[in-house]
């Protein structure tokens, strides 16, 4: 049975998570400043990227939909927020991203490398032995994701890892 202190801690943790997910960026706009001015320290604070328009789920995050701002001196970006171009390049929004707000790292994903229902080559390798088969993906996946595939010949459903070339690697089960 949870005591009143335990319930209070859970409520406080939930409130913190809810506030951080929709936290506005305390920043000043640096779009009018050149990169040399920002680098020279004329814009004091940490430079971050935030959406300049609503980005909908499934939409690829493009540089044109982001705005660079400089945080107010003394403010730092919260942990778990993606604010650099390397973190956002080619990613897809998992949920709606609002303008002027930080982008939670949990709200973005890699673009799908294989789509659901796509024909793929499935490989099993053990030492010098390599077995290949044709399959159909039952779910989409990015490189490194574990997905389910239906073997076209046998009809069996197997799991495998999406490789960077779009093939699927399966292991011994």
Automatic annotation (TrEMBL):
Source domain of life: Bacteria
Domain SAF, first and last residues per copy: 46-109
This protein's UniProt keywords: Bacterial flagellum biogenesis, Cell projection, Cilium, Flagellum, Periplasm, Signal
Function: Involved in the assembly process of the P-ring formation. It may associate with FlgF on the rod constituting a structure essential for the P-ring assembly or may act as a modulator protein for the P-ring assembly.
Coiled coil feature spans: none
Keyword hit for Chloroplast: no
Keyword Signal tagged: yes
Source organism of the structure: Mesorhizobium montanum
Listed InterPro entries: Flagellar_FlgA, SAF, SAF_FlgA
Localization in the cell: Periplasm
Name used for this protein in its record: Flagella basal body P-ring formation protein FlgA
Pfam families: ChapFlgA
Record family assignment: Belongs to the FlgA family.
Signal sequence coordinates: 1-27
């Amino acid at each position: 049975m949870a005591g009143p202190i335990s319930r209070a801690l859970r409520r406080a943790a939930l409130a913190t998570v809810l506030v951080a997910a929709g936290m506005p960026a305390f920043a000043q706009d640096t779009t009018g400043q050149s990169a040399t001015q920002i680098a020279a320290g004329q814009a004091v604070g940490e430079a971050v990227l935030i959406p300049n328009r609503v980005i909908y789920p499934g939409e690829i995050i493009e540089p044109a939909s982001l705005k660079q701002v400089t945080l107010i001196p003394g403010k730092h970006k919260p942990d778990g927020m993606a604010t650099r171009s390397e973190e956002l390049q080619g990613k897809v929004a998992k949920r709606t991203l609002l303008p002027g707000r930080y982008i939670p790292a949990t709200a973005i994903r890699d673009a799908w490398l294989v789509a659901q229902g796509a024909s793929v080559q499935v490989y099993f390798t053990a030492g010098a032995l390599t077995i290949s088969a044709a399959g159909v993906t039952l779910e989409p996946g990015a490189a490194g994701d574990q997905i389910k595939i239906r073997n076209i010949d046998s009809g069996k459903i197997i799991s495998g890892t999406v490789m960077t070339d779009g093939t699927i690697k399966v292991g011994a089960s």
